[in-house]
Amino acid sequence: QVQLVESGGGLVQAGGSLRLSCAASGRTFSSYRMGWFRQAPGKEREFVAAISGSVGRTSYADSVKGRFTISRDNAKNTVYLQLNSLKPEDTAVYYCVADTNSWGSYAYWGQGTQVTVSS
Length: 119
Prior knowledge:
By secondary structure, the chain is mainly β. Helices cover 0% and strands 50% of the residues.
């Protein structure tokens, strides 16, 4: 069982930045595939970014590429999502996700953290 706790959400003006953090439990964090999803009001949950457990390979949704950066600190069992050049359409609840497998769906989800971008 992997527990995930997100932090760092908040209210920011368009063009601003935030950094989300996700602390994970487990002694083999470095092998976990980690990621972020988001869900805006009235919309379906969507993939944002992911980072592999082995070599730290990253992937991003086209809508955030060049603005968001995912990273991980295996010594702290933490994954980060740096959000830059924020737009009102980035407003959503952001969820940290994890899985012990290198592919497929994510088995573990955090409780979510709200990001609100004002215009």
